[in-house]
Every structure is written in structure tokens, then in C-alpha cells.
Amino acid sequence: MERSLMAILLAVGLLVGGVMGAAYARARRGWADYQNTKKSVPGLRRLAWLLIRLAATKIGIVALLLVGAVAYAAAGPDHEQAGPTPSPTPSPSATPAHRTGR
Q1: What is the separation of C-alpha 53 from the centre of its chain, rounded to a whole number of angstroms?
Q2: Residue 46 phi, psi dihedral angles, 5° rounding
Q3: What is the rounded (10 degree) CA torsion for 52, 53, 59, 65?
Q4: What's the rounded Cα separation, in Å, for the pair 40 and 47?
Q5: More reliable by pLDDT, 82 or 90
Q6: What is the mean predicted confidence (pLDDT) over 14-21?
Q7: Main-chain dihedrals φ then ψ at residue 3, nearest 5 degrees
Q8: On the CB side of 18, how many CA atoms lie within 13 Å of its CA?
């Protein structure tokens, strides 16, 4: 009886030790990942601001081009420099005599 009790206690101890060891290893791995991420944050923050600045610059250039295009379109042609417009030429109308087949 004493031997079976010792075997059960040994099995329970191994099970608890295995579970606790796995939890400890997971906690150490998480702490190491946290420290690595914490070290990389300033560099990533600089990169994020750089990308935001590039995107804002591109949006600003496109907005300026759009404003320029709208201003150019709103100004219209300069009537003082515009040449004479061509007058429409009358086209011959179809008369009943010109229609064939009747």
C-alpha cells in the first residue's frame, strides 16, 4: 500500500511539475517577446511618422494639382486673345425633288 501511494504521489508531482514548467517557459518567452517589442517601438514609431509624412505630401501635391485644374477651368478662354470663331455653313436641305425612289 505504501508503494502505490508513493507511485501516485510521484505521478501527481510529475504532472504538476510539467504543467508548472510549461507555464513558466511560456511566461519567460512572453517576457522576452515583450522586451524585444519594447526595444523596437521607437524605430517603428519613426517609420510610422515617415510614412504619414510621405502620404500627406502626396495628398497635398494632388490637392494642389486639383485646385490648379479647377482654377484653370474656371478662368475660361481669354476673349481678348481668342481668334474669330468659324461661322456655321448652311448645308443643303433635302427637298422632295432630290429624293429618289418616289
Answers
A1: 14
A2: -60, -45
A3: -170
A4: 11
A5: 90
A6: 95
A7: -70, -40
A8: 6
